[in-house]
Design a protein that fits this description.
alpha+beta
Length: 396
Amino acid sequence: MAAIDYPVRMPVVRLIPSLSCIPAADWDALHDGGNPFVCHAFLCGLELTGCLRPSWGWTPHHLTLWQGDELVAAAPGYLKDNSHGEFVFDHAWAHAYARYGQDYFPKWLCAVPYSPVTGPRLLARDDAGRLALLRAMQGLVESEQLSSAHVNFPLPGEDALFPRDWLPRLDVQYHWRNPGRWRTFDDYLAAMDHKHRKNIRQERAKVCRAGIELRTIHGDEAGEAELEAMHGFYLKTFDDYGNSPALTPEFIGHLARTMPRSLVMFMAFDGAVPVAAALCLRGGDTLYGRYWGGENLPGLHFETCYYQGIDYCLREGLARFEPGAQGEHKVARGFLPALVHSRHWIADPAFREALARWCGEEAMSVRRYAADIGRHSPFRAVDACVEGVSSNQTQP
């Protein structure tokens, strides 16, 4: 009997204005749970607790693909009329559009708001679903007459799926990685040269002599006082730098309730009084540092933001610690350069061609910079000075 080919239904594209429209189980079935930032609880929590506002440039516009009533692929997405809170800077692109009388905004962005963290962006069960999402993104730009679509901080495996007309960009962050042979903080220090090992011990000793006690508090261990203190420290840091805070106390409380073991706070106490704290999120094998605030005491920032996190990773068997964007000062404390990616589809062919040359030159510069910084490693020997690039690579 001859085989009969039945037509396969194409997935239907739906744009969702809020993740509260999608059951959490359906969304979370599209990723492995290893990255907390793409979990329904995190993304939906931002929307429900007042952290995202159109006036701040964030309008949820999630791209989803459906087979009948089944969600088969999704990408967290937002309409943007500015570049606030993205950590991939495209202000020069917007100015170039304006000089030629074109509108760069609104654009569509696939990302996690306020979070420069690499993770899944094309949520699907296979590469066919991921490729369908990329095609749908281009269709979205064309149908809604947007200037562009952007995917910030995708996984390296996802990055390889993008067609050539999606422009690649690179940036540098500073990540801690356990090569697998460190079990204790002393093991980690023993891998360093004498100068850096001594400096770290001195920084930690200052905090100890001041009588500061550090505590690790997970979401399900935090009371209202600790959560309120954490948000207060967050506000203080933003006020010190003249920035506008986006996260609400309700959001931090939401994380504590819905992601109780993913939320990790390192809180410093002077007696019974909290004087500093760092808010982190824990993934499958990675700790992600996000926010810090506290008193200006010697060594307290480094202890709370970096050394407590490293200690936690060593105790818990986590392989990586990503403490956020920027900061060459992190290198001296064992955080080495790592390349991070973004992809961009520009609707206007002439602008796309011009920006392709710009991106290529930027990538070569970023690789050279990362390789140079990597040569200042505090370790006596490292497997690779820069994660994702060797020192002699110059191609984009």
